[in-house]
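README: folding subset

This subset contains proteins for which both the sequence and a predicted structure token string are available. Records are stored as plain text. Below is the entry for O-methyltransferase (234 residues), shown exactly as it appears on disk.
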Amino acid sequence: MTQNQWNAVDGYFDAVFGDEDPALAAAAEAHIGFDLPDIGVSRSQGKLLHLLALVQRAERILEIGTFGGYSSIWLARALPPGGRLVTIEWERSFAETAAGHLARAGVADRVDQRVGRALDILPDLAKTAEEPFDLVFIDANKPDTPEYFDWALELSRPGGVIVVDNVVLGGAVADAGNPDGGVRGMRRFHEKVAAEPRVSATTIQTVGSKGYDGFTLAVILPGQQDRPEATDLP
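--- output ---
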């Protein structure tokens, strides 16, 4: 299989399901304005997040890594009346662009945008959050993913779901000697998840318009959520 074939297959399914509207299409092109590669999730991946939120009957969702708001729109549209998405973005210009896309999509009223370093915001969120999250989506700085997972576990309810994107990194995750910080972070993340008795998890390799990568799905086992004090976390 080649990238051209993966693109063609994704294009076929995108055309068959026809899920994307102008607001989503605009958010999907956010990278162009920043002269960046297309680093957001694909249309099919966005729809998968939407469906996971629906299956989970999620009323509270946490997203670490907003970028242009594409995945945020998919997640927010899965929320019931009164539901809330908290999304964190380090880069202010990305967050401001996302705000426009969220407004255009008609979901800004159910999204709480936080701007700053996630590892600074998450401890405050743990202190102030009234209810735990039903679903957490992590798609941010790869070296810090193990710590994001720690906080996702802290902030989620028993039975909650944690989804992490870009965990295969084109297959580089299998190379124990790779010095790249993102690869080392993902290897450390997987080792942490495997050693965590409170979750059951798997990682799935993916191909498509975003190339060869994968995502991890972790479920917090009911009755297993013995939360540590927030001060004990990184």
